[in-house]
Amino acid sequence: MGSEAIDNILSRRSIRRYSDGPIEAAALETMLKAAMSAPSAHNQQPWAFVVIDDRKILDSIPEFHPYSKMLYQAPTAIVVCGDLRELPAPYFWQQDCAAATQNILLAANALGIGSVWLGVFPHEELVTKVQELLGIPGDIKPFSIISLGYPSEGKGPSNRFAPERIHHNGW
Fold this sequence. Notes:
Blueprint: H1 4-11, H2 25-35, E1 47-52, H3 55-60, E2 76-83, H4 93-110, E3 114-119, H5 124-134, E4 140-149
Antiparallel strand pairs: 1-2, 2-4, 3-4
């Protein structure tokens, strides 16, 4: 297709195996800038982020999150949260946080960093355990955890295009 943006979108994959080495502060800032550039209903920008690079904290998440074993290898994770205080469009914070999460995944891929989206919200037990672990107040909801690390595995693009799922002007 030729476009770097399209190539980045089509080549993004979930990467669960990482090599040693920290994620640089500049790369983290770039990913967080990308997250905060996501579209937002009523421009409410309900997101808040917790960057985790403490090995003890990273290693404790798989004790309660069944799909997060890659965090044992990941040098960093970002928790995307929704700040539910005083939202003009409270029913849309999840979409805003999903867009922010996707932007982090795409920015990571563009920077050569592997990532995995780990769902937290709306699973109440996971929400509560992440809040407790990180000291997140009750009106701030953990939405997702993004595992980050330099890949030690390579994955080619995945062709998920399915024309049978496309309908024009109605079902």
